[in-house]
Amino acid sequence: xxxxxxxxxxxxxxxRLRRGAAGRTMDVERLGETMRTCxxxxxxxKANGAxxxxxxxxxxxxxxxxxxxxxxxxxxxxxxxRTIIIPDALVDTGTTYLCLPSRYIKQLGLKPFPRTIxxxxxxxxxxxxxxxxxxxxxxxxxxxxxVAELPDxxxxxxxxxPLEGLDFIVDPTTQTLMGKHxxxxxxxxx
Length: 190
Hints:
Elements: H1 9-14, E1 17-19, E2 25-31, E3 34-38, E4 55-63, H2 64-75, E5 83-91, E6 98-101, H3 102-108, E7 111-121, E8 124-138, E9 141-150, E10 157-158, H4 160-165, E11 168-171, E12 176-179
């Protein structure tokens, strides 16, 4: 949903209004417990009619532990790798981790780390469980990342660590991902 001018009918649907630093009215849009704050401006749409301001991508997430045991089981014909495909994951450069709703974490069978992490949300600081061992694939690029748990009503979020790890940046004009170093993935080493 794109941000809209104060007083517009859609403002009521988006949540509460607040005053920005410069005194402009700003809309606060809630996505589960994540938040986007957008300066007052008219709604814009892409040529295909979709709202601008969000980059959505299709992601594939797999359990890395299943990959580790698949080699031995493959010889016996019993290899099973738990996998989910999410066609509308939200790219969020204000988020750190790959964040998945609880239902996806359960489907993947990911194991939690022994401690929780603190996360800043629209509801304030909350504790979140962090899970290890997810193979994330976006546009043919794959790597292993930790996963932060979200409530089931929240969308899947791709944060800056997965974007950097897969060598992607967001093109703000097209709201799509593009290779930071072109078509070939580069890994920076010191």
